[in-house]
Amino acid sequence: MLTICVPCQDYVSSLFANSLANLTAQLTKDGISYHLYFLSGTVLSESRQRLAEDAIKNGSKYILWLDSDMVFPSDIFSLLHKHKKPIVSATYSTRKPPFRSVAFTDEFDYDKRLTETSGLHSVFAVGMGCMLTETSVFEKLPKPWFPIVWDRDSNSYMGEDISFCKLAYNTGYEIFVDVSTSKSVAHHEVKHFF
Fold first, then answer.
1. SS3 label, residue 85
2. Most exposed: 68, 98, 113, 189, by fewest CB within 10 Å?
3. d(CA 127, CA 103)
């Protein structure tokens, strides 16, 4: 069982809605049963926490995390699932210049970003705008799973998705990015990264 989790605010983009409609049509065609959960809220870390808990309660084995401003192919689940990894993601560009990948390769230097142009690569952390996780991951992590953390090294707050990756990484999980699939994933109205 798959749960598609979408943390959002009041609205989603029309391109996201189109991508989601195509994804659910593809899942239905492929005979994959799924739940679709939206959670509207202003505190993203709380929304992600509640969505993950709901997916675990409904017995899902996988969570496909999709941000409401993303564009992705209809077969995104199968593209990520084929790697058989507990945490695997697509990367995409930041929304504002300078446009860079949201996949980080060094725990201590956030300026080091994934620059590969194809293949599957292990990273320290990646944005969760298009990520597939096994629900079993959450059973091994201490709560909260998506804390908002002040990072002394960068002198700024760490996003809840990066703090989740750091927590998973420090618990022994590898985090993977499918760069080839990333070429068909983007922030709405933002140039593709690759």
1. coil
2. 98
3. 7
CA–CA dist 4, 132 (Å, integer): 9
Query: Residues 174, 81: contact at Cβ < 8 Å?
Result: no
- What is the pTM assigned to this prediction? 0.93
Token digits of residue 67 = 């941000």
Tell me the residue type at 131. M
Three state DSSP letters for 91-128: CCECCCCCCCECEECCCCCCCCECCCCCCEEEECEECC
Query: What is the C-alpha separation between 12 and 75, in angstroms, rounded?
Result: 20
User: How far, in Å, CA of 37 to CA of 179, rounded?
Assistant: 26
Query: How far from the centroid of its chain's Cα atoms is residue 99's Cα?
Result: 18
- Contact in structure between 93 and 99 (CB atoms under 8 Å): yes
pLDDT digits (tens, 9 = 90+) for 1-40: 999 999 998 888 899 999 999 999 999 999 999 999 999 9
